[in-house]
Predict the structure.
Amino acid sequence: MLKKIETLSAEMLAELKKATSEAEVKEVEIKYLGRKGAFNDIMKALSSLSDEEKRTVGKEANITKGKLEGAVNKRIEELETEKLGKIADEEWMDMTVSGIKPERGHRHLISSFIEDLERIFAKMGFAYVDGKEIEEEHYNFNQLNIPDDHPARDMQDTFWLKDLPGKLLRTHTSANQIHHMEKNDPPTRIISMGKVYRKDSDATHSPMFHQVEGLMVGEHISMANLKATLTHMLRQVFEDDSIKVRFRVSYFPFVEPGLEVDCTSPRGGWLEIGGAGMVHPNVLENVGYDPNKYTGFAFGMGIDRMIMIKHGIKDLRLFFENDLRFIEQF
Ligand code: FA5
């Protein structure tokens, strides 16, 4: 009997060693130590032994069972440690390796310039109003004192939209003056910016470019206010307090008098940057403002032109080609 206990014990220990999972260990445990297991058979067989033998064999069987239970728990622990060790081996991370830095982009030159302009005008009390790139003739031309047959329509070569009568890609941001004045009473002080479109293309003309429009209407608004506003804006934009502004008489149907605006360039000489003037009485009347009570100025500048002047860029098309060698310089 004692020999049998010894053999069973050795067999069980060998099987435990071979078990590779907790479930397998449990199976071995049941096979030897379970209710119908091999050790129970020995316990049952004790009844046929003498009292003396019962005591020795029984005692030995209990001690061995206790040891084997310990071996079961030990094997389970071993397997758990092995498992964790394996995970640590396979899934480790080297925290000292430097990471991959994601490339950080930045605002396009035009977008950041537009933000600067918005800030500069906000400080002078101009509210920002948005507009639409697809416009109606009514806003882009008619209300701006440019009726159907007016030759001034040819001054801005227009992209008309196929199958949408009277709709076009706005040729200037001046359309936003009308949208605003039709909905708001004077006095008013706004700017508006965005993309405009014309059939134009060379180094200084792009079929899509950007304008900033300004409008100030109230009592006693004069050309002096216009000059002061533009001078302050350009000095801020070019970060140069010596910038001068000059007006040359010109023609735009929606202003009277109409002006071309030039400024001294940070690189010397005079440069043309936009159009301006005193809002035409017909325009004020069109939107229901009393031209005998109110006066106002308006201006429209080429944003791309201003950026070209500021950074000495010769070709406007560079702005829109998205060549990183260009974009990353700003
Ligand atoms: C206008 O568009 C008028 N709406 C400006 C205005 C507003 C006058 C309010 C009076 C009162 P003009 O067509 O000149 O005007 O354009 C204004 C500026 O836009 C130009 O001086 C120039 O800087 C810029 N510009 C015009 N065409 C292009 C183009 N194809 N590409 C880039 N910039 C352009």
